# Entry
Amino acid sequence: SFSGSNWLWGKLRRHRGTGAEWLELTAMLAAPEANPLPSDSGEDFDDVGVEVLCVGLMRTGLQSLHRAFDVLGYKKIYDQEKISHTYQLWDDVLNNRSPDEAFLSMFKGNQVVMGMPTFCFWEDILRLYPNARVILTVRSEDGWWQSVKKAKIAMD
# Structure
């Protein structure tokens, strides 16, 4: 179980990028009275920690979700673009050298954590931020594989 942090878990379990699902996500994130975020409580953000943990694989709508968070005012987002700035900390995690300390250091000050390689360690991260809400983005296997192949071709 996710100790209460699964507010959108069921809502996006079968996400395939439909407009209705994104509208539902936007409504839930934008309605603090119905779904209050920890930082809305008046607490200092650094005392609250990570608010949202996105655990989907790449090519499952993470870039769209990132843009949605930005539009909704979430400006402190840790994603794969920040890996190079936290290389040593990831090396510590991968070599099991105080991974909890590494996670706390690399995510300090961030509202949202998403992307590669964070989805590989989501359970460890959630343990450190038990009040974080979890979003799982998924895609059909065939659609995902076609998207991966298309992205690879574009990079070649």
DSSP finds seven helices and four strands in the chain. The two ends are 41 Å apart (CA to CA). The first strand starts at residue 52 and ends at 54.
